[in-house]
Each structure stands twice: as structure tokens, then as C-alpha cells.
Structure to design on (131 residues):
């Protein structure tokens, strides 16, 4: 994080210098405001990285002896066999066609899409061993 903080500190310094020169030379408020906002955003990102480095120290990818296992964790639950993604995609396609061909088809697609999304959301609601 230290390298990223230094990179964004340099970016913030660049925007500050350009902002001051632009404000003195052009005397145009819109460009000055845009450069000031760019300076503040780069400074905010620099502050975030510096604070993160101070709080957490070096990351495993910053160290020569860092291992992949130090950063890995729970990725996600990928269901092996589920029909809900197909139903959701079918509902989205029918809804898109319904926008072109008529309200009746759009409502049919919306119902199919809502059923598919509901099935995806509540697929494992009753299954207690998947958490």
C-alpha cells in the first residue's frame, strides 16, 4: 500500500501544481474547480492507501516471502446443478422482446424473470448444511 500511496501523492501534487498555474494563468473558474476536485480525489485515495498501510502493514503480495494462502479465503458457493439461471435468462430475454412487441409479452417476461430471481435468491433458504 505504501507504493500506491506514493503514486497517488505524486498525482495529487501534479494536480495541485497544475491547478495553481491554471488558476493564475487562465482565470477560468470551471477548469480551476475541476482541477481542484481532481487534486482532492487523488489526495483522498492517497490518504486511504497511507492509512491502510499504517494500520495493516505490508500485504503478502508486497513481501518476497508472501504466500497465496495468506490472501485467500472463502470465495463463493457455486451450485453445480440449478435451473434458476436459465429461467432468469429466459425471463430477461422475453421481457426485452416484450418491450419491442407488446405489453402482454413484457408482463409475461417480467413474471418469468421475477420467478427466476426469486428462485435464485431462495434456492438454499431451506437447506441448513450450505453455510
Amino acid at each position: 500500500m505504501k507504493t500506491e500511496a506514493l503514486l497517488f501523492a505524486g498525482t495529487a501534487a501534479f494536480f495541485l501544481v497544475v491547478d495553481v498555474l491554471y488558476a493564475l494563468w487562465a482565470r477560468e473558474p470551471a477548469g480551476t474547480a475541476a482541477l481542484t476536485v481532481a487534486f482532492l480525489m487523488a489526495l483522498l485515495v492517497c490518504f486511504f492507501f497511507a492509512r491502510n498501510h499504517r494500520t495493516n502493514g505490508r500485504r503478502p503480495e508486497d513481501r518476497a516471502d508472501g504466500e497465496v494462502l495468506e490472501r485467500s479465503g472463502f470465495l463463493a458457493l457455486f451450485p453445480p446443478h440449478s435451473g434458476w439461471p436459465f429461467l432468469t435468462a429466459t425471463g430477461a430475454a422475453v421481457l426485452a422482446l416484450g418491450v419491442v412487441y407488446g405489453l402482454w409479452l413484457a408482463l409475461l417476461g417480467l413474471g418469468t424473470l421475477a420467478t427466476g430471481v426469486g428462485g435464485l435468491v431462495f434456492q438454499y433458504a431451506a437447506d441448513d448444511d450450505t453455510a
In short: The mean pLDDT is 89.
